[in-house]
Structures are given as structure tokens and as C-alpha cells.
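agent> Task received from the user: take the single chain below, predict its 3D structure, and emit C-alpha cells. No templates, no multimer pairing.
agent> Plan: (1) validate residues, (2) run structure prediction, (3) serialize to C-alpha cells, (4) report one or two observations.
agent> Step 1 OK, no nonstandard residues flagged.
tool_call: predict_structure(input=
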Amino acid sequence: MTKVLMVITAADRWTLNDGTVHPSGYWAEEVAVPHRAFRRAGWDVTNATPGGKAPTLDRLSVGIAGGMPWKRREVQRYLDSIRNELATPVALDTIDAGDFDLVFYPGGHGPMEDLAYDATSGALLADRLASGRPLALLCHAPAAITAATGPDGVSPFAGRRMTGLSNREELLNRFARKAPWLLEDRLKELGVDYSKGLIPLRPYIVVDGNLYTGQNPGSSAELADRLIADLTR
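)
tool_result: status=success, residues=233
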């Protein structure tokens, strides 16, 4: 059976430039849609967070910002069905990522607060990228590569083709104007060969060898489907 490690943020906030705290966490669609797709494919999914802390749902992601009402209801129903599983994640520092066929990071603003600075996650990402085995990051989750460094001090992701939430998409959120940094900018600073779709909020994925990335929440299904197709093949 294909085994998936889903690394979810444990943050419940995003601290902004002026010191104010924006309630945050993981984005509903980015956990629910891939998780459901993997399970329907017959795959085993293990959820992990820093410290094994139960992840926090960003309430904005089940409100208007989460899309059409039917879509939000569907996502919420699935999250409810795995509530007990999400409440008891494995601690990330107890995991051997080599035991998994796929490592998948969903987003939300939470990774900007914790995974971007988490040494355990950073080492996992660097090792996974070098292993040549599938690694996928969605929307804000590429923020986590900030914590990954090579022996020369250069990001192991430098030169790799990736996407992630664009500045234009981020700045649709008024509070983002007080962000300490924006993801698109950070990825470029790290030397990533960043690209984005022509139309904001539309699905867009980038595949570079074993590295899979999706630009935004709307890319969740397309990214999951591509992973299933490639790993099944």
C-alpha cells in the first residue's frame, strides 16, 4: 500500500509586522481534498505536526474565502469524518520520512509562522528532495523550505522549478499588507525558479522531477490527482 506522510502546520496564528496576531492554521480544502483523494486511491495517510500538536483549522477557509457554499460544506463534512485522526497527529520529530512513498505539505497561513522556522521539517525537506522520492507542497506550504539549508548554506531548492501562493493572491487579504514577508518574494530570494498561473486563484501546478508544487487552494485536486497518477504508474 502506498504510504503518505501529510505534514500539517501546528500554528494557530500568523504574527504580522506590527505585532498583531492574525488567527490562522491550516486551510480546509488543502487538507481535505488531497487527504480524501489519497484515501479513495487506497493509500494510507499519516498526519504529522511539529510537536504532535493537534492542528488548528483556519476558520476563514470554511467561510466565504473557502469558495462556493456546496464546496465548503463538502470540505467540512470530510474534515468532520477524520476529526479524531486530525486530533491525534504524530510528532514530526519521531517520523522517518524514508518510510513513506510520498511526503505532502498542505498550506494555510500557519506554515508562515511555524514550518518556515522548524529545523526538523527543514532537514526532512532537504533529505527528501535529495532522495529523489516524491515531495509535494501546496499553496503557503513552500514557506517551509525556508528552514532547509544545504551544507554550503545555500537552499537545496535553489534552481528548482516551483510555484506557491503569488503576491497578487496574497494581497487580496487586507491583513497581508502587514506581512513580515510574502511567499513569492521569499521563494525567489532562495533562488527558486518560481512561476505562477496567468489567472489568480485558478489551478496551477509545477512538477520538477520528484518535486511537486501547487499554487493555491484551487490547485488541491489537480495536484493530488497528478500525484496519484504518477505514483500509480
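agent> Step 4: summary for the user.
Helices lie at 28-40, 69-81, 83-87, 110-113, 119-131, 167-170, 183-189, 220-232.
agent> Done.
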